[in-house]
Amino acid sequence: MKYYTSLGQTGRIIRFLLAGGILLLGGAIVSAQGISTVGIVNINQVYNSFYRDSQAVRDLERLRQQYQEEIDEHFLELESLKDRHVSAREVGNRRRADQLEDQITELQRFLEDLTRRRRQQLEHRQSQLLSDDFLQRLQNAIQYVAETEGFTLILRSDTEGIQWWSSEIDVSDKVLQRLIRTSSR
């Protein structure tokens, strides 16, 4: 029969709590180090390198460019109106400044609506293409590269807001190689 002294039992409890605390702390440190790794893929480069003959893909990219040019044209017009508004205010032509302000507001609303509509149209066209076998394989290749290379997020290089990235995170060539390997099976 074993008898535990209160110190012996307390010592075991303290050691147990310390061991549990160390395990919890270690787990917290490991989870705190769960840094997200972002990759970039240049879809146009992959399209052009792998699937040059796809008319549907070329049409979508042409439409995307056309819509962007249309939006850019209206944006330049908006900037011109803003400059004229500032000039009218500087010379004290309040009536003209008010007219220009109304035009600016109207054009801003139009531009927001146009951008929204064009984005929806492109998304609709792109969703139609997603049923295409190639685009499904492209998505699978991106997912494979992301998972095997340890990326938690892959962004398109033409995504709005991306200003610069290191070539080290560009996975376009790896995605292309994966597509080539899987398509030859």
UniProtKB/TrEMBL annotation:
InterPro entries found in the cross-reference section: Chaperone_Skp, Skp_dom_sf
Listed GO CC annotations: cytosol
One protein family per Pfam: OmpH
Gene Ontology biological process terms in this record: protein stabilization
Coiled coil regions, renumbered to chain: 57-117
GO MF annotation terms: unfolded protein binding
Keywords assigned: Coiled coil, Signal
Family: Belongs to the Skp family.
Protein name: Periplasmic chaperone for outer membrane proteins Skp
Source species of the chain: Alkalispirochaeta americana
